[in-house]
Amino acid sequence: MNRDRKSPGYSRSIEDYLKAIYELESEGSPAQTSAIAEALNVAPPSVSGMVKRLSESGLLEHAPYRGVQLTRTGRRTALKMVRRHRILETYLTTKLGYDWDSVHDEAERMEHAVSDGLIERMAMALGYPRHDPHGAPIPTKDGEVDEQEDLVPLIDVPVGGMAELRMVSDRDPELLRFVASLGLRVGVSFEVIGRQPFKGPTAIRLAGPHAKERDQVIGHELAEGLSCVVLGGEVG
Amino acid sequence: MNRDRKSPGYSRSIEDYLKAIYELESEGSPAQTSAIAEALNVAPPSVSGMVKRLSESGLLEHAPYRGVQLTRTGRRTALKMVRRHRILETYLTTKLGYDWDSVHDEAERMEHAVSDGLIERMAMALGYPRHDPHGAPIPTKDGEVDEQEDLVPLIDVPVGGMAELRMVSDRDPELLRFVASLGLRVGVSFEVIGRQPFKGPTAIRLAGPHAKERDQVIGHELAEGLSCVVLGGEVG
DNA sequence: TACTAAATTTAGGCTCGATTAACTTTTTAG
DNA sequence: CTAAAAAGTTAATCGAGCCTAAATTTAGTA
Predict the structure, then answer these.
(1) Can you give the pLDDT of all 236 residues of chain A as single tens digits?
(2) Which H helix or E strand runs over B109?
(3) What's the predicted TM-score (pTM) here?
(4) CB B37 within 8 A of CB B27
(5) B20 is near strand D: CB distance < 7 Å
(6) Chain B residues close to A173, C-beta within 8 Å
(7) Which of A73, A17, A27 is closest to A50 using CA atoms?
(8) Closest CA to B16 of B44, B45, B47, B43
């Protein structure tokens, strides 16, 4: 009666809550009610209600008025959802020709419907990738995540330094299209050739024999969202 | 706000009802409450309730105590679900190494989660197949189905005649595994070499240079479920 | 034709996950 | 240190879909 269903069988909602909480937690500090509500596009009292149920089920711990933390079990499920999401995104771009800006919503819906077995088949077909198309690390089947501590936002890369784009949030398709239109992709490296004060733009020069428009200017807010690794070599 | 979501956005339940009703209708006669209930594993009053809502939404017509018929709109959605299901089954077997007995459940869940765009990409990747792995016809994007009128159940293929297996229900994995274990697949042809009366078994001989066990015996009930096309050539 | 069995619908309830309105706790600013 | 603002929780409802029990309609048979 249970060949390859979705193991313990949490509801779609529960899976969404756990994943959202995980993602908030990984930005440090316990997840707050309002943040969860915003992430899930739901009113705060809905979160309070669900949080109560989830903590009664042992998926998270709730310090009233203080926020929420995943338990070991809760984190396991959350990581499973993150893995599903990122494997799906990778599969859709690699095998079905999706662009990196259009995979998020599709994966968001599919991640609740597919079986563990399908995810593993996709992972195998992809050669067990470590990162999704936006550079986010794909948790392993038993919940290990490569945390990538050396990443810094582009705004913190010093002028004159070389860096490589390593990760962009997958949330905003517009943003992803814009980033791509600048010639930037995960793995592309560049030199930071200037930065204006007062939250002004950062100027970069793409490395390699890129056609025209090797020089680009990136606004402050966007530059905050581009996670880079600073490369050793300095440039004159 | 609506890039490639699931167009009008019916609920999972509604999609299931419409598809089930379509499948019952295509066996002739309007779909009865109890038959729908059984197909969906739901109590009859649940069907009455849903039927009321669906007919108020114009997706079907309800003659109380008489059964239910899809409207044009209802049929369109039902066919969309059938197309999704069969494309998914074909994709999973062709591209991800699933066996024909294990795709049904996976497709059943995925068909509610994926977008039209994903289905079309899969269809394209497959070269727009006309039939799924069980031989069932795949409706086109605009709802045309190849009805295959020349199919007869194996029990009606006369002894001495040649036939080719063209379609098996995808519902029962056990049955599909068993059929496969006999050396039968969609497209395999064989001669009917005997049939016992009183709902007794049918004996067949597989065509071509099949290893050992070219002769197989198939019980009455199973033989009812194997849709074949009778081939022109007679055999001594 | 009347009576029973089967099929269907109605009535009443439940759970899940969401909402708004009202209340409580925590944080922050003066 | 206190008062207002912000954040969180509780209470009361709602709708979708399901259920069981109790009518009701249809169908089949004596």
Answers:
(1) 444 444 558 999 999 999 999 999 998 878 999 999 999 999 999 999 999 999 999 999 999 999 999 999 999 999 999 999 999 999 999 999 999 999 999 999 999 999 999 999 999 999 999 999 999 999 999 999 998 889 999 999 999 999 999 999 999 999 999 999 999 999 999 999 999 998 899 999 998 776 567 899 999 999 999 999 999 755 44
(2) helix B103-110
(3) 0.92
(4) no
(5) no
(6) 3
(7) A17
(8) B47
The CA distance from A165 to A144, in Å, is 23
- A211 near B CB under 8 A: no
How many residues does this entry show for chain A?
236
**Sheet with B202-206, side-by-side order of all strands:** B152-153, B226-234, B161-168, B189-195, B202-206, B215-218
Residue of B nearest to A111 (CA): B113
For residue B91, the chain A residues in CB contact (below 8 A) are: none
B32 and chain A: CB distance < 8 Å anywhere?
no
Q: Return the closest nucleotide (C1') to the Cα of B63.
A: C8
The answer to whether B17 touches B40, Cβ cutoff 8 Å, is: yes
Q: Does B104 touch chain A (CB under 8 A)?
A: no
